[in-house]
Input
Amino acid sequence: MRTVNSEKAMSDVEQKCADRGIKLTRRRKEVLRTLVLAESAMSAYEIAERCNVGSDDPMPAMSVYRILDFLRDQQFVHRLETANKYISCSHLSCGHDHAQSQFLICNECRKVEEIDFSSEAFSVMEKAASAAGFSSISPQLEVRGLCDSCETS
Amino acid sequence: MRTVNSEKAMSDVEQKCADRGIKLTRRRKEVLRTLVLAESAMSAYEIAERCNVGSDDPMPAMSVYRILDFLRDQQFVHRLETANKYISCSHLSCGHDHAQSQFLICNECRKVEEIDFSSEAFSVMEKAASAAGFSSISPQLEVRGLCDSCETS
DNA sequence: CTATGTAAGATATAATGTATCTTTTACGAT
DNA sequence: ATCGTAAAAGATACATTATATCTTACATAG
Output
């Protein structure tokens, strides 16, 4: 699924960067493409390693961190706080913004799905938060669980 | 608030350990008490440091990790995955189990509130998860936000 | 062609966590 | 009482993740 649209995603991102007046450099492309092609979330060091397979111009891990910061600022990738891993945004080819991002993470196979919780679910959460003295909550949520295939096996 | 009931919490935990046939050793008590008295979540190393204030029998950080594992197994403390910190369960003196635990974490002052989301909110989330191919989700949730006092200031 | 600013590289170090092995302690059986 | 065993604690080494700082490369505007 991811691979099929990966080229479209890359060129859409390129367009967005042009629109925003920022540069999608060769290094940044390398990191982003690695994440777009990945089947699962990756750590910064895993990304560096994979970039270096069959390349004679090694990608330093430190650069990966900086590039991830950039890509996160642009909302092209997300950081999974509960896993210390990074994943490409599943809406790279959409036109609208995605400040919101909710993730389902399989505890078994580490598969990650980015989903949109209903505004209903969110407002219920906000109500509970407000009762506990929290006036605003972040829309980024990471929910651990078991995916269907890991559940049945 | 926390300090007022800290002694009761400690003795309640001691009772629970007796019931379960496990030992609440001196070291384990030190760590748990430190967390019970803490105003906020603490990292393993912060716990070790605080244990060592005014003590001539230093608590090694590695022991803290092992003891935290034990305390988490017994559900006396929780680990905040998004913060790499630990916090004592707010239900130490309750009789029932607390597999569920939802946390509100202030991004500004790091205050943590353990709350109970309504089963309604949870079932809405479960529905969304199920639609995305996740058959079961963990009830531990960490929601980042701003507490009232940080919001207004 | 130089000055300037952004990106990338190199290096050092901090913070967090895991693995493994040894020593100590608790405690029941002899 | 003391001996043996298992659990707990301690010591050590190292892996992983991340940040900070300084330098170098390079494109581009003046």
